[in-house]
């Protein structure tokens, strides 16, 4: 009886405090250890975790005996306390895993994050690319005193500059640099950004005592500056800004740590061209004029300062007159790219094709050749579009878009989209007999299917637009003669490119496409316009910057730039197909096309019903 009483008291001591742990027994009476997994009565998922699932609390050696294993307990502040041993009756031996991992099942995330190893381990399994821009610990997205996020209150210019020049920890940080350099002209002129970078460069050199840290920070600033000069050379077209940058490059060229970066900057400065963003962005000329007016009104400048400013102004004016008009335009095309096709207005042919010849030549071409040539033409223009070209295209007035030379690739791609849509309608409406029109319609449906498999969503949208236009869509007799299997496949393409739920099907297909692809440019351009016009640039009476607006616009541009990094292999030019597409004689008047459609098939449904009955009878 004493043995039985001793065993019962030992069991009660093991489960003191309501916690459960494994039995420390070396005998063979109970060979199966109790499960360490928590009770799932609250969660309702009886099979959510495996029998011996891995946990974040296993910081002991796997070779240590079970009787000597030690688990750290969690204090009230969320930090670990490893001083309590397994035999201590007051230590919580096993905490439910669901409460530790879930952000809603425990108060760990509400405590001090800096002292919690569990939180750091939980953050380590989070994909760095999923962290939104500017949202990380110690960044400018921290809550203010009122408990409101800075995302709704906006950001100051200095906060954005600190984020721009901060250490690159993930891919989202690299995207932030590209997005900021693309959109900052809506916020500040180039001179203000250059002054902010140079001032922080000098501040690090004066305050940082450790040589390696100082060089690392200054090198990072120079790399951001080099990226700025390389991708947006027109921002330095103003003489004052260019002269200030040249002095900085000359100053760091004598330092061995920055000599290579200084040489790359000097080479990039040779491509400085005219400022093409002055029509929509903030310019240094306006900033200098406003500063001169304010200095005149305050009367703070002395006679000595006035003479200094005048001499500097004369020097800058002289450099402007010497250099501005003789710099060649910027061209960042890669050598491996094929030359772009000519604009639609300049395409001429010595032998113009008649409408009947266009139909005959089109029917002789292979579907694969037509789809490949359409893809080659679209890629030749899409691969040359720079991110700021799209920003410029949605920001300037419509009458200035045709005159802007930097928008030639965007304009050509849009013109080509409309050209293909009208080309499809003209080819189908050319023949008077329904069976001939059905052959052309079925051929275009097959071409659309091949374009889908080549991930050329832009040409696919153009072909669908031509087939679903009013003049062609109403041709019911022609559609009835199309092969049913071909028509069903085309209906799948219509669902893919439909506007349902803001093009949900297309967006899903685009995100799941990892190979070569060309986006449906009209939709992405519309996203830029909606984000630009639907959000304010400044909040809180213009004191803070609404960066969330530019982050949304930047995500649209990031999708496009990533698609440009994967070119199509072996896109060989086919002169015959190119001539068929680009040299086609088209009628672009919608009223004329509709009248032609009515002449081919009137709105009377009697003949249509009889044709359907005959077709059903022959299919029996």
From TrEMBL:
A Pfam family assignment: RasGEF_N
- Which parts of the sequence belong to the Ras-GEF domain? 366-603
- UniProt lists compositionally biased (Low complexity) regions at 291-311
Q: Where is this region: Disordered?
A: 1-88, 291-347, 599-620
Q: Report the GO terms under cellular component.
A: plasma membrane
Instruction: Output the CDD domains linked to this UniProt entry.
Output: REM
Q: Please state every residue range assigned to the domain named N-terminal Ras-GEF.
A: 148-273
Superkingdom in the source lineage: Eukaryota
Q: Which keywords are on file for this protein? A: Guanine-nucleotide releasing factor
- GO MF annotations, alphabetized: guanyl-nucleotide exchange factor activity
> Which residues fall in a compositionally biased region of kind Polar residues?
24-49, 61-88, 599-609
Kindly list the biological process annotations in GO that this record carries.
Ras protein signal transduction
Q: Which PROSITE patterns match?
A: RASGEF_CAT, RASGEF_NTER
Name it.
Answer: Ras GEF
Can you name the source organism?
Ascobolus immersus RN42
């Amino acid at each position: 009886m004493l043995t039985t009483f001793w065993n019962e008291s030992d069991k009660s001591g093991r489960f003191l405090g309501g916690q459960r742990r494994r039995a420390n027994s070396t005998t063979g009476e109970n060979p199966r250890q109790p499960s360490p997994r928590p009770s799932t009565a609250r969660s309702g998922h009886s099979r959510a975790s495996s029998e011996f699932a891995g946990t974040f609390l296993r910081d002991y050696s796997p070779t240590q005996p079970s009787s000597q294993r030690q688990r750290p307990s969690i204090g009230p502040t969320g930090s670990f306390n490893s001083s309590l041993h397994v035999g201590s009756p007051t230590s919580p031996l096993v905490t439910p895993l669901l409460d530790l991992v879930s952000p809603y099942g425990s108060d760990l995330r509400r405590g001090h994050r800096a002292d919690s190893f569990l939180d750091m381990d939980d953050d380590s399994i989070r994909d760095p690319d999923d962290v939104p821009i500017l949202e990380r610990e110690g960044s400018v997205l921290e809550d203010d005193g009122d408990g409101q996020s800075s995302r709704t209150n906006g950001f100051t210019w200095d906060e954005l500059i600190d984020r721009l020049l901060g250490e690159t920890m993930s891919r989202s940080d690299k995207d932030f640099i590209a997005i900021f350099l693309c959109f900052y002209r809506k916020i500040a002129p180039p001179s203000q950004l250059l002054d902010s970078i140079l001032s922080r460069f000098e501040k690090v050199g004066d305050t940082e005592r450790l040589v390696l840290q100082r060089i690392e920070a200054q090198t990072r600033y120079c790399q951001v500056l080099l990226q700025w000069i390389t991708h947006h050379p027109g921002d330095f077209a103003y003489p004052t800004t260019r002269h200030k940058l040249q002095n900085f490059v000359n100053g760091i060229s004598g330092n061995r740590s920055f000599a290579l970066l200084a040489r790359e900057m000097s080479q990039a400065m040779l491509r400085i061209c005219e400022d093409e963003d002055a029509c929509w962005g903030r310019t240094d000329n306006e900033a200098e004029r406003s500063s001169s007016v304010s200095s005149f009104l305050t009367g703070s400048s002395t006679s000595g300062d006035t003479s200094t400013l005048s001499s500097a102004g004369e020097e800058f004016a002289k450099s402007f007159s010497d250099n501005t008009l003789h710099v060649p335009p910027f061209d960042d095309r890669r050598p491996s790219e094929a030359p772009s096709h000519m604009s639609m207005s300049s395409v001429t042919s010595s032998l113009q094709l008649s409408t009947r010849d266009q139909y005959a030549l089109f029917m002789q071409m292979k579907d694969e050749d037509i789809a490949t040539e359409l893809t080659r033409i679209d890629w030749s223009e899409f691969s040359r579009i720079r991110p700021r070209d799209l920003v410029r295209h949605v920001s300037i007035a419509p009458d200035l878009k045709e005159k802007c030379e930097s928008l030639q690739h965007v304009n050509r791609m849009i013109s080509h989209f409309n050209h293909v849509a009208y080309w499809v309608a003209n080819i189908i409406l050319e023949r008077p007999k329904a069976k001939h029109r059905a052959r052309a319609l079925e051929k275009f449906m097959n071409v659309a299917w091949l374009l889908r498999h080549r991930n050329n969503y832009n040409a696919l949208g153009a072909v669908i637009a031509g087939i679903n236009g009013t003049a062609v869509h109403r041709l019911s007799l022609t559609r009835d003669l199309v092969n049913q299997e071909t028509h069903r496949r085309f209906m799948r393409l219509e669902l893919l490119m439909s506007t349902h739920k803001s093009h949900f099907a297309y967006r899903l297909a685009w995100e799941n496409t990892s190979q070569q692809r060309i986006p449906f440019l009209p939709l992405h351009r519309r996203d830029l316009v909606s984000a630009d016009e639907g959000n304010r640039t400044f909040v809180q009476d213009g004191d803070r910057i609404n960066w969330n607006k530019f982050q949304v616009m930047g995500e649209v541009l990031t999708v496009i730039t990533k698609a440009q990094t994967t070119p199509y292999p072996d896109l060989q030019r086919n002169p015959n197909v190119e001539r068929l597409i680009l040299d086609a004689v088209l009628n672009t008047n919608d009223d004329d096309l509709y009248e032609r459609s009515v002449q081919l098939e009137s709105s009377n449904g009697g003949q249509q019903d009889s044709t359907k009955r005959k077709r059903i009878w022959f299919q029996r």
